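Usage example:
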Amino acid sequence: DQQVKQNSPSLSVQEGRISILNCDYTNSMFDYFLWYKKYPAEGPTFLISISSIKDKNEDGRFTVFLNKSAKHLSLHIVPSQPGDSAVYFCAASAGNTPLVFGKGTRLSVIA
Amino acid sequence: DVKVTQSSRYLVKRTGEKVFLECVQDMDHENMFWYRQDPGLGLRLIYFSYDVKMKEKGDIPEGYSVSREKKERFSLILESASTNQTSMYLCASSLSGLGTEQYFGPGTRLTVT
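Running the assembly step on the lines above writes:
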């Protein structure tokens, strides 16, 4: 039973355009959501997070949107750069329980 | 900066061997975690620890055990390695709360032949 779903295994975007990565969840108790970025042969690095009391959080080129009624969040990267090419993981937690990760989406930014 | 280090980047072991993967964090974090990452399966939690000598099973604990004798060190043990344990193993730590931002080590690519 997958509680956090990233339905697109891969995404290809032109440099300078917007990248939109999507994540759906099923557990209505989730109250904190995070995005991680992972390069090959490296550990994931934290990118941005959002609490369930908010619907948007922005950090530079990265913005996360949360739609609680749809149980959906998305990560927008504007403008996309070749260095953004990586695997992106969505994660969620409910109170003091460990993070639950999605399977990841591989983003390729084409110059 | 938080630093999480793992004892080996690459490891090759034979079936049936006992394997130790070590993880050390330098920021006095309470919580530590072990994951494995496999293509198409994402990050799956094996075990976690919220205090010294405390451990909890994650989603896929079978075939693994852990040890946390000191706050900064969390070891993953494969009692008898099998080929289906070939994977990328990632250690992480977090300061406050199990569901908050985690800091990951670089990973250990384990191959069991």
